[in-house]
Write a structure and sequence with these properties.
single chain; mainly alpha; 102 residues; two-stranded antiparallel sheet; 6% strand
């Protein structure tokens, strides 16, 4: 039954996907899911992903440190660097500039 297949697909579709027009990762709005909760989940998930990647770079890479999150922010990567630095400082009470070179 086509309706059952569509309902099953809609029920299990990913919460986030890359936008085909610009490649930026965005939440998928779904019926029966609160938009505010979806956006909050999206933001918390990617904030934690960014923190994880910063820590991984810090402990495993040598040389200049690059905050390259174009896969998430697309064209707006440079605009979000202050946010990323503030996120790190809020969690660890350490300024990124003090521990790594850019």
């Amino acid at each position: 039954d086509t309706d059952k297949v569509i309902n099953l697909f809609d029920k299990h579709i990913a919460l986030f996907t890359d936008d085909s027009s610009d490649g930026e990762i965005k939440p998928i709005l779904k019926k029966n899911i609160c938009q505010e909760n979806l956006y909050n989940t999206f933001n918390v998930f990617y904030q934690n992903t960014i923190l994880y990647e910063i820590i991984l770079k810090w402990v495993s890479e040598e040389g200049k440190f690059k905050l390259d999150y174009k896969w998430l922010f697309n064209q707006r990567n440079e605009e979000n660097i202050p946010f990323i630095k503030r996120l790190f400082k809020d969690h660890f009470e350490i300024d990124l500039e003090e521990i790594i070179s850019f």
